[in-house]
Specification:
InterPro entries: CheY-like_superfamily, PhyR_sigma2, PhyR_sigma4, Sig_resp-reg_PhyR, Sig_transdc_resp-reg_receiver. The chain is of the alpha/beta class. Helices cover 54% and strands 9% of the residues. The longest helix is centred in the N-terminal third of the chain and has 17 residues.
């Protein structure tokens, strides 16, 4: 099997992580593309002493840390991209957030994260703790949950309230979600994509974003429906079944970046 074939299954997950790290699909994909170009140009330098996914993320982090990227001229503000990336790293995405995303969202062990960001496991644990403390300091907001499975809806409700936020309601259909959003104007939306009456959470989010901007986190058992690379994708996407820590991390990141899912 070629190296490209081995890496292909891991690319959607890396793109998800890159979007969460940078705050936008465009910026995240730019870094992923740069990492792949680095691998193609020097395949002999690709790490061979760890599994392919860990090695892929290692190359990505090397690119992210250096910000040594040739940006496509069609990208807006391309001439300022590297400087902006450094500023983003310093002001928006501290190392603690990287550690939290890599453990809680990507499922890496503390030892693996240490390999990726050049720290020992104890140092990673400290960063994760620091990031979780940041979560607890997030400004309270009102959260709309779009989820047709009662147990999952209750679980999400519990997670949101434990983080200190309020829940405006749990919608189980597209029409109910839009009506609740218009009525309550939430500061965050957690959305499944397959709803009770066979309506679509994606369509519900489109309708909501057509009325006002709000950060959106998709939580779904069908991530392949959103990670197609054929249209703008959500910055924050969680796969079912999920861990509470994963949802907590995504909520913190979404509120921090105040991102919207540009599902147009």
């Amino acid at each position: 099997m070629t190296l490209a074939a081995k890496l292909a299954p891991h690319l959607p997950l890396l793109r998800r992580y890159a979007r969460a790290l940078t705050g936008t699909q465009r910026d995240g994909d730019t870094y992923v593309r740069a990492a792949l170009e680095a691998i193609v140009s020097a395949p002999e330098d690709f790490p061979r002493d760890v599994d392919e996914r860990l090695a892929l993320y290692r190359v990505f982090h090397a690119i992210w840390s250096s910000s040594n990227i040739d940006v496509d001229s069609e990208e807006p503000a391309a001439s300022n991209f590297e400087r902006a990336a450094h500023e983003r790293l310093a002001a928006i995405t501290p190392l603690s957030r990287q550690a939290l995303l890599l453990t809680a969202m990507e499922g890496f062990s503390h030892e693996d994260v240490g390999y990726l960001i050049d720290l020992d496991p104890d140092g990673v644990s400290g960063l994760v703790k620091e990031a979780m403390e940041e979560i607890s300091r997030q400004t309270r907001t009102r959260v709309l949950i779009i989820e047709d499975e009662p147990i999952i809806g209750m679980d999400l409700d519990s997670i949101v309230r434990d983080l200190g936020h309020d829940v405006t309601g749990i919608a189980v259909t597209r029409d109910e979600a839009v009506a609740l959003a218009i009525d309550t104007e939430p500061g965050l939306v957690l959305a499944d994509i397959q709803l009770a009456d066979d309506s679509s959470g994606i369509d519900a989010v489109k309708d909501i974003l057509g009325r006002f901007s709000v950060p959106v986190i998709f939580i779904t058992a069908f991530p392949e429906r959103l990670l197609t690379g054929e249209r703008p994708e959500p910055t924050f996407l969680i796969t079912k079944p999920f861990q509470r820590s994963t949802v907590s991390a995504a909520i913190a990141q979404a509120l921090f970046f105040n991102s919207t899912a540009a599902m147009r």
